[in-house]
Amino acid sequence: MKASTYLAGDDLPAADFNTLVQIARGWKGASASSVTGTAGRDGVHFGKSTGLANATATTIDSNHDWRDRVLTVHAFNLGGANLLPGESTDYTDWSTLGAGTPGVLMGYTGTGALSNTTTGAAVANGAPPVAGTGAGGTSYRVTIGANICLYADPSTGALKAYNATGATVYQWLEVDATADLGVR
Questions:
Q1: Nearest Cα to 122, choosing from 110, 137, 134, 100?
Q2: What pLDDT, on the 0 to 100 scale, is given for residue 18?
Q3: Strand order of the sheet with strand 148-152?
Q4: Quick one: DSSP state of residue 154?
Q5: How far apart are CA 79 and CA 77, in angstroms?
Q6: Residues 180, 94: Cα–Cα separation, whole Å
Q7: pLDDT digits (tens, 9 = 90+) for 40-96
């Protein structure tokens, strides 16, 4: 069986489905959790040769709806594009770089991010996401480094990054997310 030959919505023969179930890694809310009934996880990895430009919203993934999820993020600042897989010095051991400390960070995406909770203004280039609540709504973001955060676009659910460091940064990100928790 080649799982890659199936598309979403295809009927699976019982034998193929049973094989997938046997080898799949299942996730769901713990029985004693106040957030139960959610099953599944999504994950993506990201590295971009042009980096995350300063004061710019960058789409990381638009294949999933990232709202109402808890993210676990492995983030590493490479210090330059040439260290990304496939680039000129991708053989370099990232642990020796000193350009950034690897981090494992967690946070909740809620209903998405705003740039202003008083007015409800959307995140835009030059207007970074904030965390908080106000007359304009509640805004959620996950900080992954000094002045760098991930957030869900409140209108599309796309996962985005915002860099407000003053310079382009070259991040390697691995993002693992719960299924939609069903609380927002």
A1: 137
A2: 67
A3: 56-61, 159-163, 148-152, 142-145
A4: T
A5: 6
A6: 33
A7: 788 899 999 899 999 999 999 999 999 999 999 998 888 888 888 888 988 888 776
pTM for this model (two decimals): 0.82
Residue 136's φ and ψ, nearest 5 degrees, are -85, -10
* Number of residues that this document lists for the chain: 184
DSSP, collapsed to helix, strand or coil, labels residue 111 as: coil
Render the burial of 123-147: b for 16+ CB within 10 Å, e for the rest: beeebbbbbeeeeebbbbbbbbbee
Tell me, rounded to whole angstroms, the distance of Cα 63 from its chain centroid. Answer: 11
Residues 69 and 179 sit within 8 Å (Cβ to Cβ): yes
Alpha helices in the chain (DSSP H): 14-23
Domain ranges of the chain: 41-178
For 143, the token pair is 């900080």
* Residue pointed to by tokens 């919203």: 57
With H, G, I as helix, E, B as strand and everything else as coil, classify residue 103: strand
As a whole number of angstroms, the distance between CA 17 and CA 36 comes to 25
CA distances from 48 to 115, 151, 157 (A): 24, 18, 21
Identity at 81, one-letter amino acid code: A
Quick count: other Cβ atoms within 10 Å of Cβ 94? Answer: 15
